[in-house]
Write a structure and sequence with these properties.
With about 750 residues, the protein is α+β, with helices and mostly antiparallel strands. The protein is about 35% helix and about 30% strand. The protein has a five-stranded antiparallel β-sheet with strand order 2-1-5-4-3, sandwiched between helices. A hairpin with a 5-residue loop joins β16 and β17. It starts with a helix and ends in an 11-residue tail after the last helix. About 5% of the residues have low confidence.
Amino acid sequence: MTGLDIVLAAVSVALLLVVIWLVAAKYRRSPLANHAKPARIPFQSIMEHVPLGIAIIQDHQLVFANEMLAQLFGYDLAEFTQMSPEQQVQLIHPADRDRVRDTERKRSRGQPDIPTIVEFRITTRTGDARWLQSTVHSVPRRNSTVVLHTVADITARKMAQAALKQREARYRAVVDEQTDLVCRLKPSGQLTFVNEAYCRLFNMEQGELIGSAFLTCFHEEDRAAVTAILAGFTPARPIQRHEHRIVTAVGGIRWYQWNSRALYDERGEIAEVQCVGRDIDELKKAQKALQEAERRYRATIDSMSDMIHVVDRDLKVILHNRALAQRHVEYKLEHEIIGRHISELYPFLGTEIYEQYEQVFRTGEVLVSEEINTVADQRVVTETRKIPLFSNGQITGVVTVMRDFTEHKETKDVLAIERALLKQIIDKNPYSIQIFSPEGYHLSGNEAFIKLWKQAPGPDYCLYDDPLLLRHGMTGMRERLRRGEVIRAPVMWYNPHDISLENPDVELCLAGVIYPIMHTDGTLAQVVVMHEAVTERARAERALRESEEKFRALAEHASLGIAIVQDNRFIFTNEAYTSILGHRDVDLHNASLDEMIRLAHLEDQPALRELAERWNQGEEDCLTDYEYRVTTASGSMKWLQGYTNCIPYRGHRAILQVVADITARKRAESERNRLIEELSAAVLQVKQLRGLLPICAICKKIRNDEGYWEMLEAYISEHSEAEFTHSICPECAKNHYPGCEDDPSEH
């Protein structure tokens, strides 16, 4: 009996005692006479629904009994209450009657107010044995005594207790005789108990092992993990399962699976740890082999085009192949398949499908059926095989293999529709279509064929001997077509007038393909020849080639550098381009635009990269005129003028770049600018000495722009490149230095 059972029983008894106390106080003078049906009393509806048998006896008379009490003994209430006390006692198992009577006598002689509990067996009307527990409580009153009997069915508990005793006995036998390792250890890790299997494995006596460290038996690499596991016990998680290697007495290494349980004392602390180890070394090897087998098995079913899934006995999918998953995506079904019931995955299935699964599980025989369902508004027909999956002689699942037969079922209708559609396609096709026999003789042709060729070939015409085809190298066609090879005919110019003089004399260009129609056995059934008139296109391509050749010839001999850039790479450069760049030995064909930019002067590279970025972004207006410097292979610097524009080239956008060497022009411009600057400076100097100069009539001083008077020679020296040397003229020497006029330079 669990603690919860005790609490519920105590609450029920307490509630009933209160109720009976009230009933006894109010109705103690209303005994049941001659075991008649009890009178209707208050609280009876409550007692009728209590899950216990209840009887109230007052002054040795039964005053109340509920339906549950009679049901416990296997009778209805009327029958049970009409029995005499002796008849009721006879329902008790013979082996328990004396004990029940003795307990009742002791109760009546002892302390009647203390509840008495007795367990006994009864035999019901149907002959079944049942265990009951009776709790008797006496409530003495002034003039009488009320006795309350509460009876509960404890058959299940008794059976559980018996089973528990059997399990305990078996457990003791298992511990003593099993091959699993059983040991107990202290929280510190010292062994306190080992069984015989433990001793045999390590070839040691029990006394030698007791007190030794538990960890010493484990592989050195696993000891840290085992220590962490043993330290991780909690009251909420007292059991740990782990797999680790141990080292045997002979030095061998084997895998063991350990179930470790922490045993707690009344203080909630670990008293001991019990460990049971099972040898799983062979299992580990088997698991490895099984994983490899499963991998091969999985690869096999994934390579199959049939849809496959495996369901367990609950009809939940436990395995499926790739084809089934792809079909789920195609039909927009559930993507998560594993673990789902087939009714969730395929709600459109009928009840007959579940009956088929039930039949396979019941008979163990393969069941083949044809299933028609509507999935994603599509009619799907499958041939389904349900194959039982056996394990240890028991059917554990069903392998379902589904092959899509939708097309097979609709083949006739589809073929008819396709024939009609194919005929329309052939007749209305703008291309000329001819059908030939395997021997190469004409069978039929569509409207476009008649329009192109004007008439069907004669009965003697053979495709394999056509002179036009043979002239273009189309030999060995018969053998190639028999091998299933598709033959693409070269573009050919043809004149219908060559076949018949009645046909117009006009030049046509044809492009064609010849392909075989094969039987299912791989033999040639028919030959289909398709022609397309590409006269205008061929003429345009011819004109384009001629134009391109002219452009190339012009570009190759031009004095300016010409390049075409497409997809950021040079696809054409002429000789003048590399010559102007100063890198004749560099092959710019297929070089990137960035490689060319790196040849430019460092100061000009950012501007060029900005231009390249604009070109790459596809700006419609990429007409650009720019100047930049390049460093030649010899290390000298050149000035170039570039001109770019967007052009269509071979059906795609391209950049046309034209460059010219302007180094000489740049040098001339530089020299011209230098001369202009020198001339400007000279002119400026000349202008400063022109005009009216205010000069003193007496001392000959000149007034400058600031209004100051300065010496004549100082003013001229400041405003020109003239310099002065001083001397005395003869006249002044005569006037100012008499007697020295003969040689004034000496003074």
